[in-house]
Design brief:
six-stranded mixed β-sheet; Rossmann fold; alpha/beta; two-stranded antiparallel sheet; 2 domains
């Protein structure tokens, strides 16, 4: 088959999604439909599988034993021995009830993080995980339409996959900053709405104070040189304090901190766009990429980009004695 098409009809609205150039695939995921607050949301996935339902099931965290199908086939192919005429065959024992699979949204995303590491041939990572969200006035729409909550859930899955205690540490920043309560996968629903009220800390971008607080938490309040700290920093642009940001990133290059900056939209990201060429650091401890629309990028691509440089930094940090 060269082209497949999925059509979702919701009232008067119709969404059409096509996968082209499909050839040897035996299973396809077109779209994800899930409930968000009181509405249903649709996200294009476009993921293809080879090998039938087994790899598809495993992508959602369902373990399928390789020898199970062979055993079933062998049983079906071999005729059962006939019972002696004088002995009446007993009624077969009822088959055990299937074990229900109850995976939350974070569990499913966590599995995708693990698959990304496996694809990159990276050993399981143990690290502290933090996320910093831009909360300036220009981000208002993304908070209201649920985009920030969605981004939070996708980052929480990384913490669930390899955080040292399963917690995600969260900050918000604009002119001021807010260190929010840490959260686990058990309490992710409506976290953004429950934790941050737009307007209380809104305004313009001011990255240095929140960066200083992140550094303070992991190097002064809760130091641990045996485990890396992975900081995902979302900004929609307007980055202006080049000198101070450069200083903080340079100074923290001797610490067990890795900064993954993510730009939201097409904007001016200033110094963040030149992190790979930033001189004077003990080790390259930061990376940056921009997304036009984070809600339109698939989970696999997002995790692939988020975990592009962090694993290599861990190896170099250990070689240079930053990590014990």
């Amino acid at each position: 088959m060269e082209k497949c098409q999925a059509i979702v009809q919701a009232g008067s609205q119709q969404v059409t999604y096509e996968i082209t150039q499909a050839t040897q695939e035996t299973a396809l995921i077109f779209i994800e439909i899930y409930k968000h607050r009181d509405n249903l949301k649709v996200r294009a996935i476009g993921r293809r599988f080879f090998g039938g339902l087994k790899p598809l099931a495993e992508s959602f965290g369902v373990e399928v034993e390789d020898h199970a199908s062979a055993e079933v086939a062998a049983t079906m192919a071999s005729p059962a021995p006939a019972a002696p005429a004088s002995v009446q065959s007993p009624n077969p024992a009822p088959a055990p009830a299937p074990v229900p699979v109850n995976l939350s949204k974070i569990d499913l995303l966590k599995r995708k993080v693990t698959l990304t590491l496996e694809k990159k041939k990276i050993e399981p990572i143990k690290a502290r995980v933090a996320v910093v969200f831009d909360a300036s006035g220009s981000m208002y729409k993304l908070y209201r339409n649920g985009t920030v909550q969605e981004a939070f859930e996708r980052i929480l899955a990384i913490a669930a996959a390899f955080d040292d205690n399963g917690e995600l540490d969260v900050w918000f920043f604009a002119k001021d900053y807010l260190r929010a309560p840490s959260v686990t996968a058990r309490d992710f629903e409506n976290y953004i709405a429950r934790t941050y009220t737009l307007g209380s800390k809104g305004g313009t971008n001011n990255e240095p104070p929140v960066m200083e607080d992140v550094i303070r938490k992991y190097t002064v309040e809760e130091p641990n040189v045996s485990i890396p700290t992975y900081i995902i920093f979302f900004s929609d642009g307007g980055v202006s304090q080049k000198g101070k940001i450069t200083q903080l990133i340079t100074e923290s290059s001797t610490k067990n901190l890795f900064w993954q900056f993510v730009g939201l939209g097409q904007a001016n990201y200033g110094v963040l766009q030149n992190l790979d060429e930033m001189p004077g650091r003990y080790i390259d401890n930061a990376n940056f990429f921009a997304l036009d629309d984070i809600s339109r990028i698939g989970d696999e691509e997002l995790y692939d980009r988020l975990l592009n440089e962090f694993p290599a930094w861990i190896k170099e940090a250990r070689a240079k004695g930053i990590l014990a």
